[in-house]
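Task: complex structure prediction.
Instruction: return structure tokens for all chains below.
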Amino acid sequence: MIEDLLLTRYNYVVVVLLLGIGTYMLIENSNLVKKVIGMNVFQTGIFLFFITSAYVEGGAPPVVEHGGHGSTYVSPLPHVLILTAIVVGVSLTAVALALVVRIYAEYGTLDENVLREVRADE
Amino acid sequence: MTLTLLEAAILLFVIGSAVTAALLRDVLGSIIAFAGYSLGIAILWVYLQAPDVALTEAAVGAGVMTLLFLLTLVRTVRPPSDELLESVGWRGATAGGALAAALLTTVPSLPAIGDPDAPVVAGEVTQYYLDNAYGETEVENVVTAVLAAYRGFDTLGEAVVVFAAGVAVLVVLRQGEFV
Amino acid sequence: MSSNDRPPYVESTIIMTTVRFVAPFVLTLGLFIMFHGAESAGGGFQGGVVVGTVILMLAFAFGIEAVRAWLNPTAILGLIASGVLVFLAIGFGSVALDGAFLEYHAYEQLGIHHASGYGIELVELGIGAIVTGVIIGLFFVISAGFDPAEGEEEDLL
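Output:
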């Protein structure tokens, strides 16, 4: 059972692990920059799920040579979705990092716990 | 698709660098581990026959994203670290572990990797795009055809999101110009 | 361990020479990916990011402030705006010709053959321009950071 899982659905197991690691980083790392890294790890876990679902045994990349009937291709739709998701992801990261820079300028710390204390004192 | 040794090595590298990024106390070390992680993921896309995604991931994940993280570190602070690793916290470990365990129970129900009868691959939408993309859009790369023609309105939305992110960063950092 | 102990970045001959040598090739690759997106792997998003990294690479080798002074802010803004305008013009142009939004075949009545191929190519270039501009912009804005003094002045206003 476990052997079967690892040999035929290994990518999905990796997806699950990456989502777990991402959640851990978001909750446990008190440094805000590391939280943003955790968000990105979680995100790539989901990307891996989509791209794996598009894969087909012996499939070629979806570039059809003049119609290209008859040969096997991987599914192009998840690729498109993830392609745009990556670019939106970098925009999201940039906004998050800008907020981090701003928080540091206002409070002089990036540690979640210290930040909470400073906010409580105000 | 059966698991080859090289793929297993890449998957292990990806998980290993993710764990390293999570546990390293030094933020700079964490960022470098994340850059390695992105590169491993980009190689994985090539194995999964997604060259378009691999190109973007290599340039964005390992390149631009790392630079943005490094710049943030320059603009803020790199906390001094005496120890190499952080101690594992129970709250995060419980939450992450519970999520992973819950999701793991769904994995056996998913189709095997590379199964030609899997719903995504054998589905009507995929077959329509593959059969008609060249005839209808005169573009050989189906990814481009879907991106710019079939889902063109969607892509306009994505472009607007990217533009909005640029404006949001300007607002948050109270600056008037991009350069 | 703190970053203040280390000497500030001095221009390194090795990095500068490498970047000077590699930059034209990366720029060519990025443009190739952008223009060739219809026939092989590539397109606006992918090519735009690669073209954007050329400027980022220059900034890392020759100093961020030097490259910031060299770049024209209007050009970056113009790049982003022209990308959006090209996308919108092609999208609504087909509406003006009694087609749906982005219905490339509507342009064939103007006597343009392969309108669909050219239309997609142009849209991809538009996306590439937006992505390139925004990537460069994000980099320089975050590198400038936040100046609290400036912010307070605005608060008073």
